[in-house]
Amino acid sequence: VSYQPNYSSRSIPGSSLQNYTVMDFIIIGAGSAGSVVATRLTEDPSVNVLVLECGRSDIAVGLELRIPLTAGKLQFKNASFPFYTEEQKFASFANNKKQAHLPTGKTLGGGSSINYLAYVRGAAADYDEWQSMGADGWSFKDVLPYFKKSECCQCIDLLEKEFHGVDGPLPVSIRSPRNPIVTDFINACGQVGYPNLDYNGKDIVGASYFQTTSMKGERASTAFAYLHPSMHRKNLHVVTEANVTRILFSQDGKKAIGVEYMKDNKIVRVLASKEVIVSAGSLNTPKILQLSGIGPAPELKKWNIDLIKDLPVGLNLQDHCFTTICCIGPPKKNIGSINGAKALGFPSGLLSLAEWFLHGTGIFASTCYDGNLFCHSGVRPHLPYPDLQISVMTTGGDAELIYKNLNVSPEWTYPPEFIGPNAEAFIILVTLLHPVSRGSVTLKSTDSQAHPAIQPNYLQEDVDLKTLMAGCKIAMKILQQGAMKDTFGRAYFHPKLLQKHNNKSDSDAFWEDHIRHFCTTLYHPTSTCAIGKVVDPQLKVYGMNGLRVADASIMPQIMSGNTNAPSIMIGEKAADMIAKEYGYMNKSQVTLSANENYKRKRQTLHRNIALYVAVIATSITLVVAYLMK
């Protein structure tokens, strides 16, 4: 199933760019949105685009980036920024220093290269609410065409066809074969009254398997789907390991004219004749803007940064946080053999890897983040969209890696029989979709390589805690249904909390304690440069010329679900708005559909294999002939 993409020489070293080289557009960040904008704009051969990516090529990261099962390891593979939040006052009490680990992508493809592959658009009401908040042109009917344009659905017969695309560059699949734990979970949701549905269709409330950004069991990042197939274009230039230090402005400070970045310890300045587009993500985009003089005046004054434009950059941070319920399997049911933990032992692990390589199926084709329910908590009955997401992580897995990812303090870890390679267990994630709490992203230093100060303020507002409490009770009701009898035995909670509450785990006091200790991020920061606050509906920074933002930071409000698919949509819509504004209608350099891209890559792989075989055979023949002389 795997292949080596043709990484064209159009990816150029920074040193080969002369100071003050002029491009039409400079895109900061080759992530979920930035890769899309670059690919779509360069469909017109007259448009020259430079992409500056802080991280390495995704190919340099290695095979683990392409195997879904190894998603958790990518947070520590030099493929991400290892960000941590500031100390939390209302949540994450079980974490080291009460900090949440909040990594973000640092490679081509950005977050889409390291995430857990979930393809979730959110509720139609999310976008209609954006429209009502002043984001004109961002209602669901406005954005649906861009979702469909990006998508090449591999499971269209299982879904509501009118809501999905089949010719786009981004493959969307459902894991095969299905995991029995998730099947039981979905059936149990049905017994409680939640239908099995296509959550990317007409309605979102219900249970289902995750749709994932994958092709034949392999991760499909935006680098895989958009950037690599377009690298042959002479008007597309990509520089990796380029650390942007600041945006350059005209003398009057009203127009962005270029970017300064560091590559190989050298400062390079490049100019944009049209626009600078910042697509560095919800944590790095505000940092870059603030370092460049665009942000809250008091914050910039604190760091002696010359003010270009006083805007609330970074002051509207919203993120999904979740709590966990550890679920122990029934006695003698051996769920460890199907949940990915024991399945990775010897020799079953080698057989599973061979299955993935040959067929693109099995445990290696899954992140083990497979099952999902969207529902209403009832805490805020007026909401037009679900406020809870209850998911199944079907592996006990590598305990050390899980605790490292979640930044759990040693005193709050669970015994290895409950989370670890021999665990007969799975994990329920209860996620808060629409937090009332708001946070911020600000500077810690004027050093462009320093991490920002990230303060999400998880559970600062009581309504957020009450929503998660309601979610935990809904999850427990589902687990106690008859459909779960073969996979769920009991819930396991930390002994220190049980002892504190007299071994009773059903009171509101217990749930509050549990949630405040075991509540952390689902890695979905958004809204730090929101439409209506920092940018207008065309994504142009207020009061500035030649400067846009295109990533999850522009969301007026966080989505009802995982944020990668909406980020890709934002990239598609941003590129279309730009092309229409400048009259770029020549689309002669076609972006390949996922099916055509995969077909060509397989043909290249087969040709290379045939070439290697021919070379080896010829070499053997020559050696034999020489020896027989």
Characterise the protein shown here:
The chain has 629 residues and is of the alpha/beta class. Helices cover 28% and strands 18% of the residues. The strands form seven sheets. Strands 1, 2, 11, 12, 13, 14 and 25 form a seven-stranded mixed β-sheet that branches. Strands 7, 17, 18, 19, 20, 23 and 24 form a seven-stranded antiparallel β-sheet that branches. Strand 15, helix 8 and strand 16 form a beta-alpha-beta unit. The protein starts with 20 loop residues before the first strand and ends with a helix. The N terminus is likely disordered.
Secondary-structure map with pairings?
Blueprint: E1 21-28, H1 34-41, E2 49-52, H2 58-61, E3 80-81, E4 104-105, H3 124-132, H4 140-150, E5 151-153, E6 170-174, H5 180-192, E7 206-209, E8 211-212, E9 214-215, E10 218-219, H6 222-227, E11 236-239, E12 243-249, E13 256-263, E14 266-278, H7 281-291, E15 294-295, H8 297-302, E16 309-310, E17 321-328, H9 348-359, E18 369-375, E19 388-393, H10 399-406, E20 425-432, E21 440-442, E22 453-455, H11 462-479, E23 490-492, H12 495-500, H13 508-517, E24 519-521, E25 547-549, H14 564-582, H15 594-627
Parallel strand pairs: 1-2, 1-14, 2-11, 5-6, 14-25, 15-16
Antiparallel strand pairs: 3-4, 6-8, 7-18, 9-10, 12-13, 13-14, 17-20, 17-23, 17-24, 18-19, 19-20, 21-22
Helix pairs in contact: 1-14, 4-14, 11-13
